[in-house]
From TrEMBL:
Catalytic activity: 5-amino-5-(4-hydroxybenzyl)-6-(D-ribitylimino)-5,6-dihydrouracil + S-adenosyl-L-methionine = 7,8-didemethyl-8-hydroxy-5-deazariboflavin + 5'-deoxyadenosine + L-methionine + NH4(+) + H(+); 5-amino-6-(D-ribitylamino)uracil + L-tyrosine + S-adenosyl-L-methionine = 5-amino-5-(4-hydroxybenzyl)-6-(D-ribitylimino)-5,6-dihydrouracil + 2-iminoacetate + 5'-deoxyadenosine + L-methionine + H(+)
UniProt family annotation: In the C-terminal section; belongs to the radical SAM superfamily. CofH family.
Residue span of region Disordered: 578-620, 640-661
Protein name (database record): FO synthase
Organism whose genome encodes this protein: Volvox africanus
Length: 1095
């Protein structure tokens, strides 16, 4: 049987009452455990299968009846349904007549926009498909669920969202029997939190490392409470939703916290409006049981709790491609079959839209002074059953959470009578992990759980300890989950429903999948993805990027690491280390910069960013906003826990204000969120031992086993905590065995002969188009005589290499590069010229009508020593389509470098990482391609001793001035954890074919480069003399690292230094001696490009 709910476009028509329905009294007898205020009904938590079937038949009939009810125009016809559903609208209808029926039905059923309702499963169908779970012993169900979870993308990570909870208003038009959140208006107390109050709390959260501002409120309070309507009017807003939109926009802009909005039942238009200012939204379905709407039921007199109304909002969120949170409430009068039905309805919507990013399985807690104060709370086993059922129904990749502050203390899993409450809680948490959850939901160091104020969130260390005891690593996330962030830049997704790629059929029949799934990107509905999303395949429409760098999408990208988890670390490539406070100040400055990207070279960016956002506030509210912002700035605490505590005191004092909520219950010290260099939460318990699979892979590499496969490299690139430490230790050991303790470097000079370029690389802050002289310094070319002068000067200063690259000047052809080479060789014949990227070689060859090999042979004959392996960026065409759409593709890059190897020219190899690509997957592909390229070179022999690639140079993306970042479409480069890990994994993945791994001090700074020496690196690159490309992107690590300083750094790292040539030979003694001199560099000579190319 199939149940569908009507769209808003239904027409009222007379229908006959469904005479076959059981009478309410019979229903009550069948479902006796729904009666409230009866502790004696505890056994009803475990009804038999037969009972479930009878219940489901009754419930199905009732659902149909209720659906019909919405079409009922007459008071006469409404009467039977009033008894069934108990909605106040029906009561009103009887009293007020036909018009009231229509109005009330519209409220209850049709607050969402018209759409194309999809068939939802009926109870009989649900039980037919999933009813077997009612019979399975709990232990077996949990075991299957946990195995399924571990086959998914979660990779031993259990996440939580560090947040602040902002109860914008506690007025609500519903009256749920279990709720203490909803409060009536009180004289002298504001109905809504002010902007000042919200910003003050959000600033506290930002300082404590939170990522989420949870905006939770009652449903449409202005419809019931005149006080709410008048206060909104005073502030200049027409509705609560308008106020929420403005508040979210301001919080995002002023604090960087990402709003997650729970604003109740909404229309699709309202959801789309809030999507522009939020990272995600949510609405608990709670239950599909209509019996809860009866008088005495949990949802009696709650128009917004009508299941069809909520399902309609959830479906509208799918059409709007909103990353959405939903879930069920266990124990409010529902049965296990009801829970299966509610989950199945959500599953059905997610099958179509793929938008349900997480399921909350929340247990009812009885609260004093509520209608359900005496209602029995469900035992832990009931919660475990619902969690396990949800996992099995939704598959391995769904995110399933259970709030840790609500975990029932009575525990079959170890919470004995003698155990402390924390011990019992932790036993409950472990049981929930064993039942298949992978997330703890939002937890705040600052605010209370205002829905359950009597249940404080646990301290992070307690939760981390319980999570670690289950072999999992606790990690902070954003309110939007990684699969919706558009970082998974692998193959375009073919499925709409990536959260459960293995489907549910196998799971529901107990045939658990055996293959490990990938890490899919959630693909938004095609109509949304195609509708003007500036990032196209990157974001797939889940996030809004329409505000450029001020958009919520840009804010999300600024906040994440390569896996989509919270980047809770101040370090970025290209910038000297700074503490958290300095980093926050820097971020504020970056965010405060106008959104006008014309100040940088944007010839490569076709669509200009929008102007700075206008104030979302009406004039009446805008006046208070300036004051609020000032106060928020004044109250942002310092970054130490002690200072945060002090601020909490200040906040408590402020809490006397009219609508300011009290801070959370203090449990000793206040915690803050920070991720360390090992990718795990700093100072928090974590599993002590590396995982068996990582251990096996590392042993295989160290014992000379087969090379790592692409998915194995990716797994290592996702290492955190103990796995990270094990990977770094293995890389260090392999480096020691392969290269010894010597750290090499080359004395060299960079010459970037022009910054004029016709290409449109979105990451490049160096290049200038023909008409871009006024932008960030002039366009230039370096005259031939200046190239010669710089080369000679470098030789005199002890250099053995000049490294020459530049933009692709429209006037350059293959002969130009040959003349550049000749100029350098003429000035210093013994100088090794390391020049011309594969892109330049390709350009030179095609401009002369030569093959790659033919042109490379001419370059080699003219004295070219080797090629830099740049222009590779990320060897993944999906990613290149965003980063460098008109550059040579992956195959051409490999072809040019392969040709160079065949003519005897050696090359370096590079990877620019941390901008827009899915980190681990794209990096793993890149590394394996490089290894295969080197294996080809070894297969063909080549000239001399060494062949092919000399070294691998990871190049962390420097974001500050990069156009793609300035436009709000890239991350802030890799995290320090990712930088360290990539160098270490490169050592392991390229072994034994590429033996040198270089740390780039230009990108990461000298001290961090020294740190990389303990993660598999054996080379520090060049002394450079003149660095301009990375500095153009905003880096501040200097232009030269003289040999004396270089060797100090290497010795301080406990290693021996050695100068080398480009090809890892021994430099001439006299050059080495010269290199320690202190001859200053002469001023550089440039020529304006507008006067016409090289002369
Ligand atoms: S990266 Fe190179 S090819 Fe691309 S725009 Fe910059 S200079 Fe030109």
């Amino acid at each position: 049987m199939t149940m569908s709910y009507p769209s808003a476009s239904f027409t009222f028509q007379s229908v006959s009452p469904p005479m076959q329905l059981p009478k309410p009294a019979n229903l009550a007898r069948v479902r006796g455990h729904h009666a409230l205020n009866s502790k004696s009904q505890q056994s009803a938590w475990y009804p038999s299968r037969a009972q479930h079937v009878r219940i489901s038949a009754a419930a199905a009939a009732e659902l149909c009846a209720a659906r019909t009810h919405t079409h009922t125009p007459s008071i006469k016809a409404a009467k039977p349904f009033r008894r069934l559903c108990g909605l106040s609208c029906c009561t009103n209808a009887v009293a007020l007549g036909h018009a009231a029926v229509r109005r009330a039905c519209t409220i209850a059923m049709c607050t969402a926009d018209a759409g194309h309702p999809i068939p939802l499963p009926g109870m009989a169908e649900v039980l037919d498909q999933y009813g077997w779970m009612l019979e399975l012993p709990l232990e077996e169900l949990m075991s299957r669920a946990a195995v399924l979870r571990d086959k998914g993308q979660h990779n031993a990570i259990v996440s939580f969202s560090p947040k602040v909870f902002l109860p914008i208003t506690r007025l609500c038009r519903d009256t749920c029997g279990y709720c203490t959140f909803a409060q009536p208006p009180r004289p002298g107390r504001r109905a809504f939190m002010t902007l000042e109050e919200m910003l003050q709390i959000a600033a506290q959260g930002a300082a404590a490392g939170c990522s989420e501002a949870l905006l939770t409120l009652g449903d449409k309070p202005e419809d019931r409470w005149p006080e709410a309507a008048s206060e909104l009017m005073e502030m200049g807003f027409g509705s609560t939703i308008e106020y929420v939109e403005a508040a979210a926009k301001t919080i995002l802009r002023e604090t960087g916290l990402l709003p997650h909005i729970n604003a109740g039942v909404m229309s699709e238009a309202e959801l789309r409006k809030l999507k522009k200012v939020s990272a995600s939204q949510g609405l608990m379905l709670e239950s599909t049981s209509l019996e809860l709407m009866h008088p005495g039921g949990a949802h009696h007199n709650c128009p917004d709790k009508y299941p069809a109304s909520r399902l309609k909002t959830i479906e509208a969120a799918g059409r709007a491609a909103v990353p959405y949170t939903s879930g069920i409430l266990v124990g409010i009068g529902d049965t296990r079959s009801d829970r299966l039905h509610a989950l199945a309805c959500l599953h059905c919507l997610n099958e179509r839209y793929g938008h349900i990013q997480e399921l909350i399985i929340q247990n009812f807690r009885a609260k004093p002074a509520t209608a359900m104060a005496a209602w029995p709370e469900p035992p832990l086993e009931e919660l475990l059953w619902a969690v396990a059922a949800a996992r099995i129904m939704f598959g391995p990749n769904m995110n399933i959470q259970a709030p840790p502050n609500l975990t029932p203390l009575e525990s079959a899993a170890g919470g004995g009578s003698g155990a402390s409450s924390l011990d019992a809680l932790q036993a409950g948490w472990r049981a929930l992990l064993n039942a298949g959850i992978n997330d703890w939901g939002g937890i705040s160091p600052i605010t209370r759980d205002f829905v359950n104020p009597e249940k404080p969130w646990p301290h992070l260390s307690s939760l981390a300890a319980a999570t670690a005891a289950a072999g999992k690593l606790l990690l902070p996330r954003l309110p939007v989950y990684p699969a919706y962030l558009g970082l998974r830049g692998g193959a375009p997704q073919s499925t709409r429903h990536p959260a459960h790629p293995e489907g549910t059929a196998a799971a529901v029949r107990g045939e658990l999948a055996t293959k490990a799934p990938g890490t899919p990107l959630a693909a938004a509905p095609a109509e949304v993805a195609a509708a003007g999303n500036p990032l196209g395949q990157l974001s797939c429409g889940w996030l809004d990027f329409s505000g450029g760098r001020d958009s919520v999408g840009a804010a999300v990208l600024r906040s994440i690491d390569s896996e989509g988890f919270l980047r809770a670390s101040a370090w970025v490539a290209g910038r000297p280390d700074m503490n958290e406070q300095e980093a926050q100040s820097q971020e504020q400055q970056e965010r405060a910069q106008p959104s006008d990207v014309s100040r940088v070279s944007v010839s490569s960016i076709s669509d200009a960013a929008p102007p700075p956002a206008a104030s979302p506030w009406p004039p009446a509210a805008a006046a208070s906003m300036a004051i609020a912002t000032t106060m928020a700035e004044a109250t942002i605490p310092t970054t130490t826990p002690a200072a945060t505590t002090a601020e909490m005191g200040s906040m408590a004092a402020t809490a006397q204000r009219a609508s300011m909520p009290m801070p959370r219950w203090q449990e000793g010290r206040v915690w803050r969120v920070a991720v360390g260099v090992d990718g795990a939460l700093e100072g928090m318990p974590r599993p002590l031992d590396p995982s068996p699979r990582v251990t096996r892979l590392l042993e295989g590499v160290l014992t000379g086993g087969r090379p790592l496969q692409r998915d194995e490299v990716e797994l290592l690139l996702r290492s955190r905590g103990a796995d990270h430490d094990a990977v770094c230790a293995a890389a260090d050991e392999l480096r020691r065995r392969t290269c010894g303790d010597i750290v090499s470097y080359v004395v060299n000079r960079n010459i970037n002969y022009t910054n004029v370029c016709t290409y449109k690389c979105s990451f490049c802050a160096f290049s200038k188009g023909r008409t871009a002289e006024e932008l960030r310094g002039p366009a230039y070319v370096v005259p031939y005589e200046e190239i010669a002068r710089r080369t000679a000067e470098a030789w005199d200063r002890g250099a053995t290499e000049v490294c020459m690259q530049g933009g692709i000047h429209p006037d350059f052809n293959g002969d130009t590069y040959l003349r550049i080479l000749s100029a350098a060789k003429a000035a210093a014949p013994a100088m090794h010229v390391h020049a011309f990227s594969p892109l330049e070689v390709h350009h030179g060859a095609t401009s002369l009508g030569l093959t790659h090999e033919g042109y490379l042979e001419r370059l080699a004959a003219a004295g070219l020593g080797s090629l830099p392996g740049t222009a590779a960026e990320v060897l993944h065409d999906h990613v290149r389509g965003v980063l460098c759409p008109d550059k040579i593709d992956t195959a051409t890059w490999l072809k040019v470098v392969g040709a160079a190897h065949r003519v005897g020219l050696r090359t370096t190899s590079t990877l620019m990482f941390g901008s827009v690509e899915e980190g681990p997957a794209a990096w793993a592909s890149h590394l394996v391609l490089l290894r295969e390229l080197q294996q080809q070179a070894e297969g063909t022999g080549g000239h001399g001793g060494g062949v092919g690639i000399t070294e691998f140079v990871p190049l962390p993306f420097v974001h500050m001035e990069s156009p793609v970042y300035v436009k709000g479409q890239a991350r802030r480069g890799p995290s320090l954890h990712e930088v360290i890990l990539l160098h270490a994994v490169a050592r392991l993945a390229l072994h034994p074919h590429v033996t040198n791994v270089q740390a780039s001090w230009v990108k990461v700074g000298p001290s961090r480069a020294a740190q990389l020496l303990a993660a598999g690196c054996n080379d520090m690159g060049g002394s450079i003399m003149n660095e301009s490309i990375t500095r153009a992107a905003g880096a501040a690590h200097g232009q030269e690292l003289p040999p004396v300083r270089m060797e100090e750094i290497i010795r301080a790292a406990g290693r021996q230094s050695r100068q080398r040539t480009t090809l890892y030979g021994i430099p001439p003694v006299e050059q080495t001696a010269r290199s320690y001199g202190t001859v200053p560099l002469q001023p550089l000579v440039l020529a304006a490009a507008s006067i016409g190319g090289l002369r």
